[in-house]
Specification:
This protein is α+β, with helices and mostly antiparallel strands and 387 residues long. Helix content is 33%, strand content 23%. Strands 4-5-7-9-8 form a five-stranded mixed β-barrel. Strands 13-14-15-16 form a four-stranded antiparallel β-sheet, covered by helices on one side.
Length: 387
């Protein structure tokens, strides 16, 4: 310890000045000044004014006064007795775009307003570049205008179509991102044309305001602005009309199965249901000739989506649905119809079938051959035949 102190003294002595800076004279002067201050008593400080703080306080007071005045006026505190306004209720704000949906995210069974998605065609995944259709089941009453199209009209000559109002469009599912003003054509108009004309009193070329009730809405989006949708009408101006659905005693709607030219009666329901939702589970257990007839029935009806869905998905030459629907099918439509006409003449409902475990060949007449293969789920599909 002593050694450490000696080292410290040795290191500090050279840098510490031996001269005293706080002398005895300095101490006496400081003591004298302290004594003088005591004799003078406490020093009164000069009051300072804080201008910014005062302005802030004034502003806050004015603001609070204004708020108080507004609240008092609304509460009726400043009105004469008996003249107070009745309390006002808040007006509910309607959610905007409740009817809008994203076609790329639309799913079967999804609820939109009063509707449920029944069917979506493939093109919805390519919106807005590709056309698509979606079918919605649900009941809705719409206001708008009925038009009895002149016989010389370009679209729907001699028929009655519906122009929904702006308010009515907000009750119908519509795709996001585009503006549509569709005309609605009634699927069941031909079965009701006389009754609808009688109810509306319309004559050819006339228009009239009306209300219609639909139980199904078929939205058809096209890249070209045709804007024609379809719907099953159940009432016109409150008058019931014949619809595509008949009600049973249980109140459950039973869908009327159409009669088809190519699909035999025992396949009619399976084909009809499959064309609505493309559930391949409905095709399990069907024979190659059954799929063959369903495929050509879809061709005959111009149902591109069902035609495409019955093609074998692993075919290397199979284009995307967008390309198939927008380019290939239309370019080959005449060839399809010519081939279909020939097969009808050759007796296509009873083709010759040569089937193995996973592949089959069908012959119609002597020269028309077709190939089918099973997919990974064991369902027969047509091999793409448009090279």
């Amino acid at each position: 310890m002593d050694e450490n102190l000696r080292n410290l003294k040795h290191n500090l002595d050279p840098v510490i000045s031996p001269k005293k800076y706080f002398t005895e004279r300095e101490k006496q002067r400081i003591r004298s000044e302290i004594a003088q201050l005591k004799r003078m008593g406490p020093v009164k400080r000069k009051r300072k004014f804080y201008i910014p703080e005062m302005l802030t306080a004034i502003t806050v007071c004015v603001f609070l006064a204004l708020i108080g005045g507004i609240v008092g006026k609304e509460a009726g505190l400043f009105t004469k007795e008996g003249s107070a306004k009745p309390p006002q209720t808040a007006t509910p704000v309607k959610e905007k775009n409740e009817n809008m949906f994203d076609p790329e995210e639309l799913k079967q069974g999804e609820k939109i307003l009063n509707f449920e998605v029944k069917k979506i065609e493939f093109g919805a995944k390519h919106f807005p570049a590709a056309s698509f259709t979606a079918i919605f089941n649900g009941k809705v009453t719409l206001s708008g205008e009925l038009e009895y199209v002149d016989a010389s009209g370009e679209h729907f000559p001699g028929e009655i179509v519906f122009h929904p109002s702006k308010e009515a469009l907000e009750k119908l599912p519509q795709p996001k991102g585009i503006q549509r003003s569709p005309i609605i054509y009634f699927n069941n108009f031909l079965d009701n044309q006389e009754q609808i004309r009688e109810v509306t009193g319309l004559k050819e070329g006339e228009k009239a305001e009306a209300t219609v009730t639909l139980n199904q809405y078929h939205l058809m989006y096209n890249k070209i602005p045709e804007n024609v949708d379809y719907g099953n009408v159940t009432e016109v101006n409150g008058h019931p009309v014949k619809v595509l659905y008949v009600g049973g005693n249980t109140g459950v709607a039973e869908e009327v199965i159409p009669e088809y030219d190519l699909v035999p009666e025992h396949l009619a329901e399976a084909y009809h249901q499959y064309s609505q939702d493309w559930d391949t589970g409905r095709l399990k257990g069907l024979e190659p000739q059954d799929i063959f007839l369903m495929f050509w029935q879809a061709v005959d009806l111009g149902d591109k989506a069902t035609v495409y869905s019955l093609l074998h998905p692993s075919a290397t030459t199979l284009p995307s649905y967008q390309e198939f629907a927008d380019r290939v099918y239309d370019s080959k439509a005449k060839e399809f119809q010519t081939l279909l006409y020939k097969m009808k003449e050759e007796g296509m409902k009873d083709p010759t079938v040569m089937a193995e475990e996973d592949s089959a060949n069908l012959r119609v007449g002597d020269k028309l051959f077709f190939e089918l293969r099973k997919d990974e789920d064991g369902v027969w599909r047509m091999v793409y035949l448009l090279e």
